[in-house]
Amino acid sequence: MNEIIHAAGWTLIHFLWQGALVGLAAATLLWLMRGARPAARYGLACAAMLACLLWPAFEFASALQATPHSLQALVLAGGADTFAQSDLLASIDNRLPLLVAAWLACVGALALRSVLGLAWIARARRTGGRNQHWQQRLSQLAARLGIRREVGLRIVEALASPITAGWWRPVVLVPAALVARMPPELLEALLAHELAHVRRHDYLVNLLQNVVETLLFYHPAVWWLSRRIRHERELVADGIAAQLTGEPRRLALALSELEKMQFASQRLALAADGGDLMQRIRHLMLPPQQRSNWKGLLAAFGITAACLAGYANARVDAASVPAARTPAVVDFRSCAKPLWPQEDLQAEHTGAVTLSFRINAKGDVTGSRVVRSSGHVGLDKAAQNGIGKCRFSPAKVRGKPVESWQQMQYVWTLD
Prior knowledge:
The protein is an alpha+beta fold. It folds into 3 domains: 1-94 and 292-326, no CATH class; 113-290, 2-Layer Sandwich (Zincin-like), CATH 3.30.2010; 327-412, TonB (TolA/TonB C-terminal domain). 61% of the residues lie in helices and 13% in strands. It is built from 15 helices and 12 strands. The protein has a 4-stranded mixed beta sheet, with helices on both faces. Strands 5-10-11 form a 3-stranded antiparallel beta sheet. It has a 3-stranded antiparallel beta sheet with strand order 8-7-12, sandwiched between helices. β7 and β8 (365-372) form a beta hairpin. The radius of gyration is 33 Å and the shape is rod-shaped.
């Protein structure tokens, strides 16, 4: 369990810079692709969101494979300097259980919110009213889009914008107010928009977005990417609906009617009011000219290559970074005062000896060597005998006791 907690904790911490790198690369590429089709930008944003999920998953799996023994080798190779440099890592490492517990609590709260949203949609699907005329019209539009699955239609009171839910058995939930007040041709345009989501299987992507948002809720890049995905997705669906109806202006008018209404956003469903409504209306009425940008494409490849090279270099450099650990701590009650060698005492020998000694995973001293001699062999050996009688709380890597080396100095003086 300790290995899982520590692997999860460091994965969450590392995603702070990993998510920032993915977000920066995505923002740059999307800017370079500002003249491309919405579908291309949507694909790029989805790829970036997928990277936000797969990169931490890879880091977590790698951390679990890094056993305490392999980490121990890194600690031993650094000697005393390594111990001094890893104080901050050790401090963070000790707080990882609290960090993981807080993360799990937030994930649980967000997951509960998602479950409640799904339950609300399921209830609306069961209890929503039916309208034979609009159900027939929806089926006709679905057939024109090549959708072979049956798409249901339910009329819901507590709703202000049409939304699409479900993948295998999709359903379009329509507000009762729209059925009563909106002109039929405008409502038909909104239904065409919802059917575009069904044809593109956008509901599944939306569920994946919610998983990433739930697991990586603490990173702003994730929420920015998710908003960008929803915006580009709505533009793509608008384009399909405009083609289906043959009148982009009709859909633009329907969206302008939605803008006048106060609506709620359903994250687990796909709503016609997603994205920036005014920007969507402008996009329908004055579509930007699509242009190829081979220079931007080259720049995109360059940025991607630079990110991959930087990550590869970071992975290599990480091999030289000591693993986060807690150092061994001596139990002074177990240490006996070193006996002054009789010959050195009579000769009034003094000096300071620096010892490097090995502590096993049980806290016993199993070996020592003289790093800096006092100048007298007897005093050096007496210091080694003294440290050998001490007991320690062993060093720990990822919460597990490991063998380690530490240093101590004995000063021999005569009062």
